[in-house]
Amino acid sequence: MVEPARVKTGSRVKVRYHGTLADGEVFDSNVEGEPLEVRIGEGGLIEGFERHLVGMAAGEEKTFTIPPGEAYGAHDASLFMKVPKNSLPADGLFVGIGVRIRLKDGRMAEGYVTEIEDDSVTLDFNHPLAGKALTFAITVVDVR
């Protein structure tokens, strides 16, 4: 009997996943769509997700939780910025909306509104999943 191909560095893997937070909120899923296809070791996945794939074969399922340090990192208070309210578009401004701003060095930064005051708006430039443990239920579809 031929041993099935197992995921290792350099493998091309197709995987279906369903990602939830500690409270059960679904943050991402491709169960109803096309499987995610990645090459292991190329940095296309968060560290913890890739580590859990290694050693699996097509058809295998697994559920695991990744701590923030192996996902999008801790929530960093230094990535909050208070900006003048009049520096942002006035229409459609609400807590939770994503915004893009140009930094002083010319780079673009994406964040989201966390607080709106009379004259200022607080923006958070952390990844929306920073500081959160991520639970994935996965099925390996193919390993090459």
What this model shows, in words?
The chain is built from 1 helix and 9 strands, in the order E-E-E-H-E-E-E-E-E-E. The longest helix has 7 residues, at 47-53. The model has no long low-confidence stretch (mean pLDDT 94). It is 5% helix and 40% strand. It is elongated and about 70 Å long. The strands form 2 sheets. Strands 1, 2, 3, 4 and 9 form a 5-stranded antiparallel β-sheet that branches. Strands 5-8-7-6 form a 4-stranded antiparallel β-sheet, with no helix packed on it. It is mostly beta strands and 144 residues long. The protein folds into 2 domains: 12-73 and 129-143, Chitinase A, domain 3 (Roll), CATH 3.10.50.40; 77-124, Thrombin, subunit H (Beta Barrel). The protein starts with 11 loop residues before the first strand and ends with a strand.
| Strand/helix succession | EEEHEEEEEE
Largest sheet: 5 strands, antiparallel
Kindly name the structural category.
mainly beta
Number of extended strands: 9
Strand content: 35-45%
Distance between the termini: 18 Å
Task: Tell me the name of the CATH class of the largest domain.
Answer: Alpha Beta
CATH topology of the largest domain: Chitinase A, domain 3
Globular, elongated, flat, extended or rod-shaped: what is the shape?
Answer: elongated
**Uncertain segments of ≥5 residues (pLDDT<50)?**
none
User: What is the count of DSSP helices, taking H or I runs of 4+ residues?
Assistant: 1
**Gyration radius over CA:** 19 Å
Mean pLDDT: 94
Based on the structure given, which CATH architecture of the largest domain is correct? Roll
Helix percentage: under 10%
Number of domains: 2
